[in-house]
Every structure is written in structure tokens, then in C-alpha cells.
Amino acid sequence: MAELQLRGVEKTYGNGFKAVHGINLDVEEGEFMVLVGPSGCAKSTTLRMIAGLETITGGEVRIGEQVVNDLVPGRRGIAMVFQNYALYPHMKVRRNLSFGLKLKRKPKAEIETATEEVSGILEIEQLLDRLPKQLSGGQAQRVALGRALIKHPEVFLFDEPLSNLDAKLRASMRVRITDLHKRLRSEGRPATVVYVTHDQVEAMTMGDRICVMKDGHIMQVADPTTLYERPANDFVAGFIGMPEMNLVKCTLTHDGALPVLTAGSQKITVAEGLASRLSAQEGPVTLGIRPQHLQVVAADEANAFTGTVSNIEFLGHEVNLHVEVEGAQFVVVVPSAELDKKIGRGDQVGLRPLGANIHIFDAESGANVSLPAD
């Protein structure tokens, strides 16, 4: 396996549209890197440039020690798993798995051994004599994964491989793919993976690190915990986490040493722990607070926003309360056992942010100005 480096990589189409804006990314050998972002953010375009399926109009892609900008896909040492599986419909599973090795004129015995090993790892031995049309979605996905695995590539590239599966099967395949990655690593065969998805649950549960993209730019690269707890900007904060972070326009002032946030006509004092980080900040800001970090209190409680319950979503073990505070919308996650059953739509409640968990974003740049210094 090998590390992957992108240096100043750009993609500009013939009509002048610039899809990728000089991005830099390092993927370590054996790392599972996820590219995530909304539709149109250029994550698949980036993956296709790594694969050689899209030309690179600026910058450099390096796999191991080699710059691969001008190499055809077959010479880059990569294997790609697509959204539509791309299995040969007229070939049985056994031949679909082994076809790439046959093109490389590998010895018959080596091909048979590799086919048996890969089918055993993915538990598809019983499928070897079936045609693709006889496979379920999950089975076809495992065959596509096996066809990539059998090549022992430098880098594995996955382009939204689970998007065609139902929710239960997606969850199962997430576990299967990550378990396979860990198994190969433990056996001394670390697999370098770049995995594209628009599903932040896939990203958070599968990636060693995650690269969040927007409009052809990289917003942040970090491990899942860091992205969740220390988002670099309001875009990352709003994209990572379910339900998404509450982002509310406020004004930041200071009452002595303590920062004060004003939303509409309502004010709350920010926790003392954030005071030093916000001492130089004043004026329009965006308050970020996750639904899990709001406490429901009485409507007249001090240091809390007062709002009206507009909707209640019962999800079994927890409830999502939707609360309107002077035009701003908050979502609060409350364990079902802790919710006052008397609360209903139209009721007034107080929302108290749990101090150390709030984030303050600059209104103009979106940067998180409440993060502690590294």
C-alpha cells in the first residue's frame, strides 16, 4: 500500500467553470479517509481525478513516490468500487472476481488461490457460480468489493458504494467494510482507502479521518470526534451531527468580563470558560449549539432563551422538540423519560445552553472563534 498526496489540485472545465479550487490533502498509508459534503461539492470529481478518470488542470496527485497526473487509470495502482457496482452481466461471480488478474496474465493457480481467498474473506463462496442478475444488492456490492480487493492495489477508491442499498443493508455493509479494513491492517496488509459519500453517518462511523468539502474547497480535515466537538467553521458545524447543530444569528457584547449574546430582545450570559477566547470579539456572530446541549427549563428561568414549542417528534428513546425563539428555530433533543409530559405544541419553555458546549462563529467568515488555542 502507499500514501496519497494531493497538492494544489484544481479542476476547471472547458466552459471556464472551476469545480475544484487548489486543494491539498494527505492520506496516510493504511488510512481510511472519507470525503463528505453535499451534492455538487466536487468530492466525486476529486476521487475521479485521483483515479485518472478526470483530467487534472492544476496541481499534482502523488501515489507513493510517483506523480500520477499523466498516468492512465490502469497504471496508477488503484482499484475503484462504484455506486452501480459495474459488474460484467454476462460473467459469473467467479469470473467477475478474477477477470482483472486474467488481463494481467497471472498464472491460473495464483488466480484460483486469490479468488478463493477473497470470496472467503467476503463470505461469498456460495455465490461464485451465479450471474450478477441473480444477486441481491448487498451480494453484488460484496462482489464489487472483492473484485477491487483481489488486485491488491496501492489505493482503494469508493464512490458512494452504498447509496443504492436500503437503510438496514447500508448499516450492515458499513460494518463489513470497516471490519475488512481493520482485518487487513492487523494482517500487515494495510489498505489505503478514499471513500466518497454524502451521508455524514457513513462518514462518522467509517472514517479514520474525514475531509469535509464545500463548493470545491476543503472546509476541515480531522477525525470524527474533532469534527463533532471542534468544528472549524459554521458549515462543518451544521453539516456534521444529527439533528444538525442549531445556528442562530446573535449579537455579542460584553458585561464586564463576561460575554453576552443577544437574540432578538433576549440575552444570555456566556459561560466564564469562554470569556478569554471571546474577549476580542464583538458585534454580529452566529451562536452554534447542538440539540443535545440544550436544557429545557421553565419559561421564566434566568439565563435562558424563552420560546414556543412548534413541533414535537417522538422517536422512541428520545424526543425532538422544535422551539421558535423570536423567529429563530431551535431543535432540542430530550430523552423521553426526562420530558415533562405536560409540554405540548404552543407551550412556552426556556432553553438553557450548557455553557462549555456552545460555539461562536464569526458572522462574516464563518470561522469558529470560540475554539481553544492549540
UniProtKB/TrEMBL annotation:
It holds the Pfam family TOBE_2. One of its GO terms (cellular component) is maltose transport complex. This is Carbohydrate ABC transporter ATP-binding protein, CUT1 family. Keywords: ATP-binding, Nucleotide-binding, Transport. It comes from Pseudooceanicola antarcticus. GO terms for molecular function: ABC-type maltose transporter activity; ATP binding; ATP hydrolysis activity. InterPro entries: AAA+_ATPase, ABC_transporter-like_ATP-bd, ABC_transporter-like_CS, ABC_transpr_MalK-like, ABC_transpr_MalK/UgpC-like, Mo/tungstate-bd_C_term_dom, NA-bd_OB-fold, P-loop_NTPase. The keyword Metal-binding does not apply. SMART domains: AAA. The keyword Nucleotidyltransferase does not apply. Residues 4-240 form the ABC transporter domain. The lineage of its organism: Bacteria, Pseudomonadati, Pseudomonadota, Alphaproteobacteria, Rhodobacterales. Belongs to the ABC transporter superfamily. CDD domains: ABC_MalK_N (cd03301).
